[in-house]
Specification:
hpI Integrase, Chain A; DNA polymerase, domain 1; mainly alpha; 2 domains
Length: 318
């Protein structure tokens, strides 16, 4: 067997493996690299920078878990959540899978157990329909910027698009929509997976109004009006996040509201209207139904109220 290098020296080979063998997106590769930096930090603080893959064992993983449990988020100063700790462990698992795939002796990845408590931390922030309506009505559609922003908000709620998917939309995807009452288009979702998204008649109406104001040649659907005319003025995901936050403050809605909140609100509304979870999975572009199942938690109270109203036993004789 070939002489093993230090664990850290395999990082670039691992990222190439993620790209070529696993077909992971650049964003996912970047996330893995960032999460593994925490593991390399752990190796340095414990004087294990020269550790080889074959030297990883249960005791080593236990010490890393303790390190993560005592680590703090540099931006908030708070201890890492269990969900965040799991992300670091999942990245290390993938690293070990790479070693196994390359016949490099190491500990089996399944030996790294994730925290079960993390699932308790997952909470879905969504708006009720009256709150969504309040947010959608906030922009002043009588001016160009307000019309654009109203159209963005309507599109987010109508389609359940991720903010990056919305920012990537192009005008040529909306040709000849003048006489249409509904529309479906293809977008590239996470992991470069195509999916179909559907526009309601209401959101399509706003898109028609907005596109009539566009006299420029920029191919992007949503643009920054203050950008240079000889360069693309496509709105960035950060710009969309900022404008949602802006209208959130004006409308007095929870400050945690974001573009993803509208995606959650879209999925929650579908679920409460009785749409099957598998169909919602398709609408959202989730690869795994387990990801979609997080929305079942938000309807538990409604189910409880329905059960209490229609199956309380009040009409039965003692």
């Amino acid at each position: 067997m070939a002489i093993q290098k230090t664990i850290k020296s395999y990082l670039n080979d691992f990222l190439d493996w993620c790209d070529v063998e696993k077909g992971l997106s650049n964003k996912t590769q970047q996330n893995y690299a960032n999460f593994l930096k925490k593991y390399f930090e752990f190796l340095e603080t414990t004087s294990l920078s020269d550790l080889k893959p074959k030297d990883i064992d249960a005791d080593h993983i236990w010490k890393y878990k303790l390190f993560l449990s005592r680590a703090k988020d540099p931006t908030t100063g708070k201890y890492l959540k269990k969900t965040t700790q799991n992300y670091y462990l999942i990245a290390l698992r993938s690293f070990l899978n790479f070693f196994a795939d390359r016949d490099i002796e190491t500990m089996p990845s399944e030996k790294i157990k994730l925290s079960r408590e993390a699932s308790k931390e997952k909470t879905i922030h969504f708006l009720k329909l009256e709150q969504v309506e309040k947010l959608l009505l906030t922009p002043d559609a009588n001016n160009l910027t307000g019309l654009r922003d109203r159209t963005i908000l309507e599109t987010l709620f109508s389609t359940g698009l991720r903010v990056a998917e919305l920012a990537a939309l192009n005008r040529d995807q909306f040709l000849n929509i003048e006489n249409k009452n509904d529309l479906e288009i293809q977008v590239m979702g996470k992991g470069d997976k195509p999916r179909t998204v559907y526009f309601s008649e209401r959101s399509l109406g706003w898109l028609k109004k907005y596109l009539k104001t566009r006299k420029d040649e920029d191919k992007a659907l949503f643009i920054n009006y203050r950008g240079l005319k000889n360069e693309t003025r496509r709105l960035t995901t950060r710009s969309v996040e900022r404008l949602v936050k802006h209208y959130t403050k004006i409308s007095g809605l929870p400050l945690s509201t974001s573009p993803h909140t509208l995606r959650h609100s879209y999925a929650t509304d579908l679920l409460e209207q009785g749409v099957d979870l598998r169909l919602i999975q398709e609408f959202l572009g989730h690869s795994n139904i387990a990801t979609t199942q997080i929305y079942t938690h938000v309807t538990n109270k409604k189910l409880k109220d329905v059960h209490r109203k229609y199956h309380s036993g009040k009409n039965m004789q003692n």
